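Figure 2 data, in text form.
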Amino acid sequence: MACRHLHGHQGKIKIFLSSDSLENGMVTDFKHLNWFKVWLDAVLDHKFIIDRDDPLFFDIMSHYTNNRGEMDESKMIYDSLGYWIPDLSFLSNKAPEALIEKYEGMVIVDFVPTSENLTAWIFEVVKRRMSKMNIKVESVEFWETPKSHCKISESAN
């Protein structure tokens, strides 16, 4: 099964929003989604997403594990949107640049990063942010290829 091998994802994300009423003829101005593009670029673009319980976590993240091979949360920076990034200050100031580049490209989550789970996570991230503007997120679709996609909707959660 190819999905068991280390690999990445690319694709297109569609977000479907709704509201009980229109303001100025719109559910919302699309500028209210600019944060999402910024977040995708800063957090996920060109990053390696790994489950903290992945059997390879110790091998890949050895500088950020405890003596049991588990993630050492004291060496991580947690974001309330549900992920960790390595705190690079725990690396020696003599660490090779390649090691720094390796760890600055890591995003740690507490789920297996399948397309479906990533879509569910993104759904929750968008829902949390848009609810502050009284905008409902009806669904999020992730298109991995022109033929392969998944959709998470409010009714599925």
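Caption note: The chain is about 25% helix and 25% strand.
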